[in-house]
Amino acid sequence: MRKRAFSLLITSAAAALAVGVGTTAAMAATTWSVSPGGAATAKSGKTILKDTKTGTALTCTSSSSSVTLKKGHGLPGAKLGTITKLSFTSCTGPLSLKFTVTVNNLPYYLNAVSYSSSTGTTKGTITGIDAKLSGTGCSAIVDGTAAGKHNGQVNGTYSNSKHTLTISGGNLHIYSVSGCFGLIKTGDPASYSATYTVSPAQTITSP
Questions:
Q1: Residues 101/88, Cβ–Cβ less than 8 Å
Q2: Fewer Cβ neighbours under 10 Å: the N or C end of the chain?
Q3: Reported confidence tier of residue 207, pLDDT bands at 50, 70, 90
Q4: Among 181, 98, 176, 97, which Cα is nearest to 140's?
Q5: Distances (CA, A) of 88 to 38, 50, 56
Q6: Alpha-carbon gap, residue 138 to 118, rounded angstroms
Q7: What is the pTM of this model?
């Protein structure tokens, strides 16, 4: 019985290893095409950063970024694009307080994860996010797993036909809160939502 159990264990482990190797190989085999690539800008109208636990939101009237995209074919999805500049305009938070947003740890990276040929859209992530919020009587850090880790991440969907990048979801949290009247709290999860128009228009596909 022990011999049979040991044999089953070895067989199961081998099967699991084969699946893992197959999955890794499949991910490694995914390549991307970008045209025209190179330097681009991405501009958004209203952006919203929300403490999803308290519902408190920080709203900016616009946002602008400078992006460099790889170009050509057979490209890896990781770090397909690099965000070198990112700014926010006219930001207001709880009790109509005015805020400034200071972006830390640039560059951030655009990573392609999956492609839908039927909709012409690419799903991916933006990684490396770390930002400071500063206002009268209220300041905080937005990051991923802890302040100063520089590992904040949001999800994004890029549309070839609309040449827009729509941001949502991710792992953002709020840290190092000072003041803020209890409307945002250290450790609270946060969401960021915005839609950026990319210029010149890019076409991103995966075979």
A1: yes
A2: N
A3: confident
A4: 176
A5: 23, 15, 18
A6: 46
A7: 0.84
